[in-house]
Amino acid sequence: MADLQPISAALEALLAGVSPLSAETVPLEAAAGRVLADAVTAQLDVPPFDNSAMDGYALRAADAGKRLPISQRIAAGSPAVPLIEGSCARIFTGGAIPPGANCVVMQERVEMDGERALIPEGIPVGDNVRLQGRDVKRGSILLNAGERLEAAALGHLAGQGITQVNVRRRPRVALLSTGDEIIDPGTPLKPGQLYNSNRPMLKRLLENFGAEVVQLVSVPDDYAQTVALLRQAAMEADVVVSTGGVSVGEEDHVKAALESLGQLDMWKLAIRPGKPLALGRLPRTDGSEARFVGLPGNPVSSFVGAWLFLRPVMGALLGCPALNALPTLTAIANFTTNTGPRQHYMRVALRFTDTGVIADAFEDQNSGVLSSCISADALAVIAPHQKVENGSLVRCLWLKGLG
What we know:
It is built from 7 helices and 28 strands. The chain has 403 residues and is of the alpha/beta class.
C-alpha cells in the first residue's frame, strides 16, 4: 500500500494548470445554472423609489394621533404627488411614498370618521417604508464573477432590467464506458453482462456540475480501439471521463492507452471506495490538452469519484469557487468502523436533532451497492488507521441540494 497516493495529491495533480474557459454571451432566460464570467455592476437602485411595505395610509409622523383627510390614493405603479400638509394618502403595498410623507400606518390600525382617517399615536418616522436603494445601490457590485446563476441571482439580474449575461462556456465532457460486459438498458442481458448504470448517473452529475456532455461512447475491451476512442474524445472534449478499465486486469486497457497517448499523473489512490482511479492528460493536435479522469467501474466508486474529482475540475474550468470543495459539517457518528491505510468515504444519512447532527451509516458500504447513494445525505470522511465509535465526531461532506 506504500504506492497509494492521498486525495490531496490527486487533486493537486488534476487541477494543476487548469484555468477558466472562455466566455460567451447568452440571454438571461437561458442562463440558469451558468457561471458569470465578469462581475455585474448595478445600474439601478433597488427599490428604485421609496415605497410602502403594506396597505395603509402614508403621512407625516408629526401628524400621528390626528384625524386626517385623505388627499390622494396611491396604488402600486401609480404616480404620487406631494402630500398636502395636514392630510394622509391612502396607499397600497408597493405604492410610491408621496413627497412630504415619511411613514405608513397599516390599515388595520386606522379607523374612519366619515371622510377622515383616525391615525393612532406614536407612528415613528420610516415605519413601514422601504427606502430607495435598501436592497441594491446603483454602482455597487450586483454579482461577482464566478457566481452561479440560480433562482435568486437570476431574479437579481432581472430586477436591473438585464437581458443578456456574460458567462463561462460549459466544459465539454466525453463520457466513455469501458468493458464488453457493459450494455445499454433496453438490450436483453446475456450471461455475464450488466446494464450501464454509470452512464446516466455520471451524465446527470456532470450536468449538475455545469458541464455539457458531448460524447457518450461505449469502449470495447480492445487496446487499439481504446486508444482510438480516447484520441477522438480528446479532440472534442475539455475533460474525458471513463468508467472501468483502469485496474490491472488483462482486459483493462485504459491506463495503458492513456500512457501511450499522453500523460498519467496519478494512479491508485489511498481512498475507499475508488482506489483504481487514473488521472492524466490527453494531447490535442493544436498543442492543448484534455484532462482525463478514469473512474472505477463499480457504481459507488464512480459516484464518490465524481463528487471528489469531477466537481472540482468543473469548478476550476468554470471559475466557480462554490464548486471547488463540498460544504462540510461535523456530525455525531451512530456507527462504528475501523479504517486501514485508505481514507474512507462512507455513505451516511443525517438527522438534525436538538443535541446535534447524527450520522447514520448505511450498513452495506460495498462499492457495488448503489442504492445507498440514493438516500445518502453526505459522505463521512474517516481518516486512515482510525477507529470510530458511537458518539465520535466525524467530518461529513454535504451532498444534498448541490450541483
